[in-house]
Design brief:
eight-stranded parallel beta sheet; globular; single chain; alpha/beta; TIM Barrel
């Protein structure tokens, strides 16, 4: 873990190197800086900042386009600062037309993330596994991806093109949009909310010559596949946007219920980290060392 004096964060070039490996890159989702630290401590190689989780944690609301680009960027900066690992961040629709996308890409670059994904939904967008999504015309989306590719100042910064056209326009339309994004210079393709393993297989066989992203969303529209099966199909990365969010929510519900019943945390003391263990986890020894050095 990087220290406060000399942060040693990974960047786009490190993410590119990870994508060149033979096995899929696992990216657990985090919605705050603590989650990013935990992902690194669990020995993963990269972090995914989830928009769904950011909306839930910052607003206590669903992912239906309520967050602004400024709120997403603020969260991205905190996540990046908390880890040495490369971070991929959700950038929703790019927050406007191709001109807005240019600024979005450059702002995320300045925030320190290694890559972003941009989708083709109409604003206000929705979580990719919700009903009622709408998408912009294909030409408009391809123009946004082209603008994103041209806007980056670091050529290694990863642009992921995500299409949500499967539900509103059909599977073949989604495939065609992905092909056009590949031609527009996207680095990774992300066909969201596939509804069967046959569709996943077709995406893997049809969209060749470019890394593919698999979205492992518990309870979503895409069927659950094992890591080995996803690797066999040739996907380059697997994001798990909501695993930590769902786990934390259930744990908090259970703890709160027990405190409510007992009137104190005594019944849960053996279920949670000790105070000292937690402060070590979030870097108190480093702070103590710095205080000693500069006092």
């Amino acid at each position: 873990m990087a220290d406060l004096l000399r942060p040693a964060r990974s960047g786009p070039a490190d993410l590119r190197a990870l994508l060149r490996r033979d096995e899929p890159l696992l990216l657990p989702g985090c919605y705050d800086a603590l989650g990013a630290r935990l992902i690194q401590q669990a020995d993963f190689d990269a972090v995914y900042m989830t928009g769904f989780g950011t909306a839930a944690s910052l607003l206590g609301r669903p992912d239906v386009g309520l967050l602004s680009v400024s709120e997403m960027l603020d969260n991205a900066r905190r996540v990046v600062a908390a880890t040495d690992l490369p971070v991929i961040a959700d950038a929703d629709t790019g927050y406007g037309n191709p001109i807005n996308v240019i600024r979005t890409v450059q702002d995320y670059e300045r925030a320190g993330v290694a890559g972003i994904h941009i989708e083709d939904q109409v604003m206000p967008k929705k979580c990719g596994h919700m009903e009622g999504k709408q998408v912009v015309p294909a030409d408009e989306f391809v123009a946004k991806i082209h603008a994103a590719v041209q806007a980056r100042t670091n050529p290694d910064f990863v642009i992921i093109a995500r299409t949500d056209a499967r539900a509103p326009e059909g599977f073949e339309a989604a495939l065609e949009r992905a092909r056009r994004c590949r031609d527009a210079g996207a680095d990774v393709l992300f066909v969201e909310a596939l509804t069967g393993e046959d569709e996943i297989e077709t995406v893997a066989s049809e969209l060749t010559g470019i890394p593919l992203l698999f979205n492992w969303a518990e309870g979503g529209k895409t069927p659950p596949l094992s890591y080995d099966r996803i690797a066999e199909l040739g996907f380059a990365m697997i994001i798990m946007p909501i695993s930590t969010l769902l786990a934390a929510t259930r744990a908090m519900q259970q703890v709160l219920a027990q405190i409510k019943e007992a009137g104190s945390p005594i019944p849960i003391l053996d279920q949670i980290p000790e105070f000292g263990e937690f402060t070590d986890l979030i870097g108190l020894p480093e702070i103590n060392e710095l205080e000693a050095r500069f006092s």
